[in-house]
Amino acid sequence: MKEFSPEDLEAYNGKDGKPCYVVYGGKVYDVSDSKLWKGGMHMRRHQAGTDLTTDIQAAPHDADVLERYPQVGVMKVSEAPEEKTPLPAVVYLLLEKNPFFRRHPHPMTVHFPIVFMFSAPFFIVLYLFTGVRAFETTAFHCLGGGVLFNIVGITTGLITWWYNYMGKMMKPIAVKLPLSLIMLALCTIAFLWRFNNPGLMLDLQGIRLLYPIIVMSLAPLVTIIGWYGATMTFPIEKD
To answer: What is the CATH superfamily name and number for domain 2-75?
Structure first.
């Protein structure tokens, strides 16, 4: 089969009527017939004419989808072996040996802190409007779940960032990381405050007024974090 260099491959980017070629595992595939590659761009994120070996590891599908399309060549073997980022033994076992842990931990776990960070303010509002104590108690329980799953979400997010993006600092990460730590800190403070003062919401005066404010601030924080996280999976198309 024809051998391609990275420079050769760039010419098959799907633009101006050119074919769409992509690479996985050293094999070059022609995906021109796929509607998902119209114009040489897939999901507003992946450009034709590039090597997708690393990107597919983080995709919601396996590499076998490429077998639907003809293989038109192979990549030339580089004289210098590619250097891989060293991984600790435990992380290697989880990520390298098991595709599930390579693709899904953060997308799967991040939904839990999102739900809890919206639910706690929601039930606080219900309590303030109705005075039903069960709503306030539910908000407290949501804070507890938020503390736990924020830790899980941040941890899996760091692993995904390191493994799939090589720890490269990008704008979404620069926003998400500090805001996630702030959100975790505020959620923890609110949870411990309410844990040590069960009647905190019964007499909202003085410094106690800060408690519902802290809880309510979790909703806009998680909204911003979630929005920037979504741009990493579904980038905004620029005119």
So the answer is: Cytochrome b5-like heme/steroid binding domain (3.10.120.10)
| 3-state SS track over 74-105 | EECCCCCCCCCCCCCHHHHHHHCCCHHHHHCH
| Phi, then psi, of 36 in degrees rounded to 5 | -75, -10
- The strand pair at 2-4 and 41-42 is best described as unpaired
Phi, psi of 7 (to 5 degrees): -70, -40
Hunting for tokens 């739900």 — which residue is that?
115
Q: What does the buried/exposed string (b/e) look like for 6-21 if buried means 16 or more CB atoms within 10 Å of the residue's CB?
A: eebbeebbbeeeebbb
Q: CA 57 to CA 60: how far, in whole Å? A: 8
3-state secondary structure of 163: helix
Cβ–Cβ under 8 Å, residues 117 and 215:
no
Distances (CA, A) of 72 to 60, 68, 69, 152: 25, 13, 9, 43
CB-CB contact of 147 with 113 (8 Å): no
CA distance 184 to 186: 6
The answer to whether residues 157 and 176 touch, using CB atoms and an 8 Å cutoff, is: yes
Report the chain's terminal Cα–Cα distance, integer Å.
Answer: 38
- Give residue-wise pLDDT tens across range 135-161: 999 999 999 999 999 999 999 888 777
Domain ranges of the chain: 2-75, 89-233
pLDDT score recorded for residue 91: 63
Strands 71-75 and 2-4, how do they pair? parallel
Query: Is 90 exceeded by the pLDDT of residue 75?
Result: no
What pTM does this model have? 0.64
Contact call for residues 219 and 209 (beta carbons, < 8 A):
no
